[in-house]
Amino acid sequence: xxxxxxxxxIAPPSxxxxxxxxxxxxxxxxxxxxxxxxxxxxxDFRIIKRHLLxxxxxxxxxxxxxxxxxxxxxxLPGEGKTYCAINLAMSISMERDARALLVDADVARPSxxxxxxxxxxxxxxxxxxxxxxxxxDVILRTNVPSLTLLPAGPASRHATELLASRNMSRLLDxxxxxxxxRIIIFDSPPLLLTTEASVLVSQMGQVVMVVEAETTAQAAVxxxxxxxxxxxxxxxxxxxxxxxxxxxxxxxxx
Length: 254
What we know:
Elements: E1 18-19, H1 23-28, H2 40-56, E2 69-74, H3 81-93, E3 99-104, H4 112-116, H5 124-129, H6 135-138, E4 140-142, E5 147-150, H7 159-163, H8 166-178, E6 182-187, H9 195-201, E7 206-212, H10 218-227, E8 234-239, E9 248-253
Parallel strand pairs: 1-4, 2-6, 2-7, 3-5, 3-6, 7-8
Antiparallel strand pairs: 4-5, 8-9
């Protein structure tokens, strides 16, 4: 998801644990914000989040372990996973009884903060690499009261092993259980591009896979789904579709 140079103004790294999201720029790009009103994109993500929130809260036929950990991924780069992850987190942050934590887990090519117009020096990788760094040291409050951010942190050649480590499992347990009203959205690497994606997805309660309409080959979609066939709760977003408004069609994969 490339932005023109004129839209890439990035705020300096936060030293206070606070990030000022560029909401004006998000509205200009047609993305979901608290002030964007009843746009087609906002309505699409209202529909998408309802099913996810219901499962996160145990409203389905069976309780989903770590149902409030939701990963957004895709088969290949450029399908709109970061766009969908941000819009989903923004939409969830509008709930009266829920808070959203948006995690940039695409540690090789992080882009969440760039799109939001903020910058951070530390993040997820710092917590996994350094036992003295706590989650509270790197999570950023924002000018959206019910939305917080966890940046990716520095790149690491051992990212796959770090994401598969016991330290990561403990971190996910903490994220899932510490605040029952918090929904955690992870922006994951593409499934067919890195091994980190499969490792991350395997630890999530719910998976949202973004498919670019009329572009992503069926073979790529099938291969990506095969890599996560052990995951029970996989949802699909048909993104950039001309046949539907906004984000596109939302469905389920069993």
